[in-house]
Design a protein that fits this description.
- By secondary structure, the protein is of the alpha+beta class.
- The protein folds into 4 domains: 6-169, Beta-Lactamase (2-Layer Sandwich); 191-290, Beta-Lactamase, CATH 3.30.450; 295-370, Helix Hairpins, CATH 1.10.287; 378-522, Heat Shock Protein 90, CATH 3.30.565.
- The chain has 16 helices and 17 strands.
- Strand 1 (49-55) and strand 2 (60-67) form a beta hairpin.
- Pfam families: GAF_2, HATPase_c, HisKA, PAS_4.
Length: 524
């Protein structure tokens, strides 16, 4: 190196100050390395320099920054212990070679190199790399150059190590952030309600599904006491289970009926698992699964099975009863042919025949309930089906002083069994007639919904149906009529026919104001 006097010492001090400033202001490792080389070039006037850092996994010296070297020389593979730089990395001691002609293990660097000086980069008593310079002149470097270069290299090593630590910390922080975001996405996307509480039962997380289930947003529950927010959990006994999990550190599960803040009754399965830090339980995670729809479907399936069994039993009873009824009816008819029969006996025979006819009607309904006829769908004009039914029942409506209002929309043809639909409409119109015994208004209308469904509405202004009766209106054998007027199977059969057509039937009723039946059928 040149100018090894007082000026050189000043430049070294300035270099150390500059590197210290870089240490404080630069966190990007590549930028820091290039700045260190720039400072060393300005201070020591090197024609070339290279910094190689130790890769602990492969024990290689990987190039980190350089100037004055060809690309081929920079990419040269050097391992710890190989060549001059490799030995410096291995021993942690500087090496000065004044004549490379006498160094057989020299790894080629600059073209025509004759001398080389390599010093270790040591941080926290560990060699993290090597600072190396070369010259085409022999004896270009002397022993006095080692100390200032080591001083600068030590300061540079600290800066490099801190930049590395910052990069590692930033990478770890980034990974934790990604993991946190990933966990958050899982919680938000889960189709189960998931929330956590700490040991004091304060809510620490609340996913989107819980917001939907409870009707309470995340910002309204975080940091709040769970049992104060939802006192119904105490009534359900859920608080005891939760406290037991926190105390014992063992999971539990339960199934219950829960009424949320909106007043809706929902059926839920809940699993409570402890959150642990080592052996200490610090909180609990609660997983909530709403099984209301599943329970409803299961109840319907069980009910269907029960009804199927009742149907089979009804069919058997109907067949068994029909045989003696036929004999009784025939006998009653023979008795009525007797001309000399006293009036009292004739009245009894007529009563027998009348009751037999009523029993035949009942057994006929039982057979319809248990063994429905095959549904034969075809292109059907729904408005024409309605008009046919109303023409058939016009006399009945007039007899009961019922005013008929018809309002037909422009409907596409549908795939349906017209005879079965007539059975439905006759039943509904007759029910409306019975509800308006003193006269009233019956409105029959149809409309098309979005081109995919058609709706028929049958509305009366009769007595209406009480709320407790509405719950059972489609149940088989349920009827508010007298025993002589109905069997309680009409609406049940109507609903089954609509279900066969992949449609739905709904009822709205207000006691004292009237009732509306709505039938929706698909157009396809």
């Amino acid at each position: 190196m040149k100018d090894r006097g007082i000026g050189q010492s000043d430049r070294i001090i300035k270099a150390l100050v500059d590197i210290g400033q870089q240490l404080a202001s630069t966190i990007d490792l590549e930028e820091l390395l290039n700045r260190i080389l720039q400072i060393s070039r300005e201070v020591f006037c090197f024609e070339n320099a290279i910094i190689r850092l130790v890769d602990e996994n492969s024990a290689r010296l990987l190039p980190a920054a350089s100037y004055g070297y060809t690309e081929e020389a920079v990419d040269k593979r050097i391992v710890v212990g190989q060549g001059i730089m490799g030995k410096v990395a291995q021993t942690g001691q500087p090496i000065l070679v004044v004549d490379l002609a006498q160094s057989p293990d020299y790894v080629p660097g600059i073209q025509g190199a004759r001398s080389e000086l390599a010093v270790p980069l040591v941080a926290r008593d560990r060699v993290i790399g090597v600072f190396n310079v070369e010259s085409p002149r022999p004896h270009a470097f002397v022993a006095e150059d080692i100390a200032p270069l080591m001083t600068m290299a030590g300061q540079a090593a600290i800066a490099i190590e801190n930049a590395r630590l910052y990069q590692n910390l930033r990478a770890v922080s980034s990974r934790f952030q990604e993991l946190s975001q990933f966990n958050s996405r899982i919680l938000k996307s889960a189709n189960l309600g998931i929330y956590t509480v700490d040991a004091q039962l304060q809510v620490t997380s609340w996913n989107r599904k819980m917001e939907e289930m409870s009707g309470v947003g995340e910002d309204q529950v975080l940091g709040k006491d769970l049992l104060e927010l939802f006192p119904v959990l105490v009534e359900e006994g859920f608080d005891e289970r939760l406290l037991r999990v926190l105390e014992r550190g063992e999971p539990e599960k339960l199934r219950l009926a829960h009424r949320n803040l909106r007043g809706e009754l929902r059926f839920q399965k809940r699993r409570i698992a402890p959150l642990k830090d080592g052996e200490t339980t610090t909180g609990a995670v609660v997983i909530v699964e709403d099984i209301t729809e599943f329970k409803t479907l299961m109840d319907q399936t069980i009910q269907s099975e029960k009804l199927a069994e009742v149907g089979r039993l009804s069919a058997g009873i109907a067949h068994e009863v029909n045989n003696p009824l036929a004999v009784i009816s025939y006998a009653a008819q023979l008795l009525l042919r007797e001309e000399q029969m006293p009036p009292f006996q004739k009245e009894l025979a007529e009563r027998i025949e009348s009751e037999v006819e009523r029993l035949k009607t009942l057994t006929g309904s039982l057979l319809s309930f248990s063994r429905a006829k095959e549904t034969r769908k075809r292109e059907t004009e729904l408005n024409e089906v309605l008009k046919d039914v109303l023409r058939l029942l016009r006399y009945e409506l007039n007899k009961n002083s019922i005013q008929l209002v018809e309002c037909y929309g422009d409907l596409p043809d549908i795939q349906a069994d017209p005879n079965k639909l007539k059975q439905v409409f006759i039943n509904l119109v007759m029910n409306a007639t019975h509800a308006m015994k003193g006269g009233g208004i019956l409105k029959v209308s149809s409309l098309c919904i979005n081109g995919q469904e058609v709706e028929v509405s049958i509305k009366d202004n009769g007595t209406g149906i009480p709320e407790d009766v509405l719950e059972h209106i489609f149940d088989p054998f349920f009827s508010t009529k007298s025993e002589a007027e109905g069997t309680g199977l009409g609406l049940y059969i109507c609903r089954n026919i609509i279900l066969e057509h992949e449609g739905r039937i709904a009822i709205d009723s207000v006691p004292g104001e009237g009732t509306t039946f709505r039938i929706v059928l698909p157009t396809g």
